[in-house]
Specification:
By secondary structure, this protein is of the alpha/beta class. The chain contains ten helices and six strands. A six-stranded parallel beta sheet has the order 2-1-3-4-5-6, sandwiched between helices. α1 (22-32) runs parallel beside α3 (51-58) and α6 runs parallel beside α7.
Length: 273
């Protein structure tokens, strides 16, 4: 059911790789709510994924861009405004990558060049996006910029290694740039700390199934699915959340507020009996 929450709004959605991607779900939901947008991803990710299928479904042009390159982001924002006929109302940053995780490197044995790449791709790219948007004056007043995060920015999840630092930097950038853009043009900037989600990227983290099940048992509502995260993103893009900014918004079924759950107590009791 559509409520036309985004009727007349235009934007950029990054990071849609395949149907499991949260960004993919956001694009479908935004389209159903009346938005028009440009899709973008790194050229390598586009070759690996199915973004052309999504483009056809949403009637959305694709503008490839390496989000670590200011020059390519400048082209992205310029092309997006040309395609969409004016300034933007929303931007989704759904970008994250850790070669250390992909290569199975433990936290005490990280490759530091890869670590720096993780920070650049997963966090500094968010700053670069907003830097370009500001310099081009590419956003309308009361626009909304959202990035996807994870609770490992605040808590230890051993197999999440250097992505924990990347997400912490991402959330800090959201607060600092959110202050700047809010004062300049009433633009709000938020991050969503999503439940562990069975995306292509998420399931590449070691031990993912274990902490997915753990989070599900800890959360009174269970893990929030990707489709629900898409709903939340759309709500943040809409005019219904005009005064929400500089927040890390927990979308985790209550996981972050629970010390221990009955399900976990029961599981531990059975294991120790």
């Amino acid at each position: 059911m559509s409520n036309n929450l985004l009727a007349g709004k235009v934007g950029i959605i990054s990071g849609a790789l395949d149907e499991k991607s949260i960004a993919w779900k956001v694009a479908l939901k935004a389209h159903s709510e009346g938005a028009r947008f440009v899709l973008t991803n790194a050229p390598l990710a586009m070759r690996m994924g199915e973004i052309k299928k999504l483009s056809e479904q949403c009637e959305a042009p694709i503008v490839p861009a390496d989000a670590t390159s200011v020059e390519e982001l400048e082209n992205l924002f310029t092309q997006a405004q040309e395609h969409l006929g004016g300034k933007l109302d929303f931007v989704l940053h759904s970008i994250g990558m850790s070669t250390n995780i992909r290569k199975g490197k433990h936290y005490g044995d990280l490759n530091y060049e890869w670590f720096q790449k993780s920070i650049d791709v997963s966090a500094l790219s968010f700053h670069k996006m907003m830097h370009v948007a500001e310099k081009q004056d590419a956003m309308n007043e009361w626009g909304s910029i959202v990035a996807l995060s994870y609770i490992a920015a605040q808590r230890v999840f051993p197999d999440y290694t250097d992505m924990s630092q990347a997400k912490a930097v991402l959330e800090s950038i959201a607060r600092n740039y959110g202050y700047r853009l809010g004062r300049l043009k009433k633009i709000r900037v938020n991050t969503i700390s999503q439940s562990p989600t069975k995306t292509t990227a998420g399931t590449g983290v070691g031990g993912f199934d274990a902490f997915f099940d753990y989070a599900d048992k800890m959360s009174p509502l269970g893990n929030a699915p990707a489709e629900a995260c898409a709903d939340y993103c759309v709500a943040l893009f809409s005019d219904l959340t005009r005064y929400v900014t500089m927040q890390n918004l927990l979308h985790d079924g209550g996981f972050s507020s629970v010390g221990i759950s009955e399900d976990i107590v029961e599981a531990l009791t059975k294991a120790n009996s």
